[in-house]
Amino acid sequence: MASQPNLSHLLPAARLRQLACDWLREDAPAFDYGGYAVGDRQECAVLLCKSPGVLAGFPFFEAIFAEVGCSVEWLQSEGAWAEPISRVAEVRGPAKDILLGERVALNCIGRCSGIATSAAKACQAARESGWHGEVAGTRKTTPGFRLPEKYALLVGGASCHRYDLGSLIMLKDNHVWASGGITQAIRSARRVGGFALKDLHPTASTVKASFPRATVEASGGITEDNVAQFVGPDVDVVSLGCLTQSARAVDFSLKICRDPASKPQLRNFVF
Question: Chain-centre distance of CA 144, in angstroms?
């Protein structure tokens, strides 16, 4: 059996460092009084998953702790389904630095895992209907957090689709109306590259009959519960803004082990 591709290889190391640095600077722009209180004693903290979901966001979690001088040892694989309460990783380093990175890292892995979980459920629902097109996210992402959210879609099995406005020409109803009609809009778009049609009044079959090479995307009000209603032989892509807008974060905690010398067990923690 072929091994699963390592999606973390998609992420430039310099970009990961920059994001981690920006997030940490936002959370600790000046004095760290808690860090002063605990000092730099070497500690081991365990990352615990406390609600069910797909694990995602490992590269960002690891980059945050690398930025504060801590190491991460993963106990589970990214993309795996986790049930509560399960041990996902161990973080080692000075107590003040573990606690400095804790909240930022938990925010990141919790949101990424929530998006991956929603994406996986939507993909499963589409496949169970017998459709083999592309389930995709949208540009409805959190400002400043698009890269982790798009990455989480991939971990969950969905497509990033358009990362930004330059990734693909997307012709929506507003473009058609501003151009004076669908034919004129498509002719203009074809001069500069590939395009997709979205949120148009003509049916997918009508569009395909006139423009067979166009990518037809269904979008608007689609969720993991009703996605099967929007797929069909003339639909190439279904995009769901809710995958990034409305995903419920998976619940994680980072707990410092009471006895760092022993192998951390769940009984060593206070919840």
Answer: 13
Instruction: For the domain made up of 131-245, give the CATH fold.
Output: TIM Barrel (3.20.20)
Q: Which of 50, 96, 121, 140 is catalytic?
A: 140
Asked if 64 and 108 touch (Cβ cutoff 8 Å), the reply is yes
Q: How many CB atoms lie within 10 A of CB 129?
A: 13
What pTM value is reported for the model?
A: 0.85
pLDDT in tens, 172-225: 667 666 766 666 666 666 554 455 555 544 566 777 777 777 778 888 889 989
E-strand stretches of 153-227: 169-171, 195-198, 215-219
Q: Is 263 a catalytic residue?
A: no
Instruction: Specify the CATH class of 7-123+248-268 in words.
Output: alpha beta
Q: Which residues contact 29 (CB under 8 A, 6 or more apart)?
A: none
Domain spans, the chain: 7-123+248-268, 131-245
Look at strands 237-239 and 42-49 and give their pairing.
Answer: unpaired
Closest Cα to residue 215, out of 229, 230, 204, 228? Answer: 204
**Distance between CA 103 and CA 6 in Å, rounded?**
26
